[in-house]
Amino acid sequence: MQVWLCENPIGPEALVWTTLPTPEPKEGEVRVAIKAASLNFPDLLIVQNKYQMKPPLPFVPGSEYSGIVEAVGEGVTGFKVGDRVVTFGGGGGFGTHVITKAAQLMPLPEGFAFDDAAAFLCTYGTTHHALIDRGQLKAGETVLVLGAAGGVGTAAIQIAKAAGAKVIAAASSDEKCALCKELGADATINYTTGNLRDEIKALTGGKGPDVVYDPVGGDLAEPVFRSIGWRGRYLVIGFAQGGIPALPLNLALLKGASIVGVFWGEFARREPKNSAAGLAELAAWYAQGKIKPVIDQRLPMSALKDAFARMSTRKVHGKLVLTND
């Protein structure tokens, strides 16, 4: 098999595309022939040794992928050779094959494309947990989505609209704002050219958004939190801008607002039944055409470094997907 091997976690430039013996699955494991894998921000952090979980060296990065079961180990009863599967977590996805625990896999329904599946679990699972579970979003409420043209941002637009909410999408360019409108956003804000607080006020009639979906952090957080509506819920998704903001807590008091942390991976581990129910609803929405991952580019698996380079430009619309044809 061929894999991207990380022996020195100093960044994507140190990854090596190499050939290793194709392993056989042990008890409770399966071998998956990878069809597609997507690039997520934690994949960058983990090869830079900046992620909270640090796998032993050497390792193969890539946490989200789809493929076909090629071999099963002893004791595996839930999967058989030929099954279509998808998973998030555990690593090993940036290659042609991977050994993983059968318990980490999910069956992939017929009609669910491999490239869509590889771009689905993390972003849509996180966003459904954020908006529907943690944010308690209701039909008719207004959601402000920051970083709205990225992977989780595009998912947030689609899920909020599926839930019957009004969506204000904030992004860093007119081109990205146009994409957000195509995905169903009711209004957009280019936060590099306009006054963010003034535009939020104008678009909400002075009320402010009911829910803020923030995967960006940095210097956008405070002005947006100052604009949130009464009983607003500020969903902390991540910090793509790099800086972790320090919000003045008196604003939460004055607005009766909540700062709500969102950690989908831990939610899925601690509350597997609730997580499975959310994913089932998402799968149904996908089948109904209500949601579909936005894929910026499809690249061959061997072009992982090119994908990391594009990610660094902050010009990605949706997700980057690597495929084994």
Which key phrases capture this entry?
oxidoreductase activity, NAD(P)-bd_dom_sf, alpha/beta, Quin_OxRdtase/zeta-crystal_CS, 2 domains, globular, six-stranded parallel beta sheet, 11 helices, NADPH:quinone oxidoreductase, Rossmann fold, Quinone Oxidoreductase, Chain A, domain 1, 325 residues, seven-stranded mixed beta sheet
Q: Uncertain regions: pLDDT < 50 for 5+ in a row? A: none
Proportion of residues in extended strands: 15-25%
What would you call the structural class?
alpha/beta
Overall helicity? 25-40%
Named at the architecture level, the CATH assignment of the largest domain is Alpha-Beta Complex
Our count of domains comes out at: 2
Oligomerization status of the protein chains? single chain
What's the total number of strands?
A: 15
Query: What is the first-to-last residue Cα distance?
Result: 14 Å
Main beta-sheet annotation: 7 strands, mixed
Query: Globular, elongated, flat, extended or rod-shaped: what is the shape?
Result: globular
Organism: Piscinibacter gummiphilus
InterPro entries: ADH-like_C, ADH-like_N, ER, GroES-like_sf, NAD(P)-bd_dom_sf, Quin_OxRdtase/zeta-crystal_CS, Zn-ADH-like_protein
GO molecular function: oxidoreductase activity; zinc ion binding
Protein name: NADPH:quinone oxidoreductase
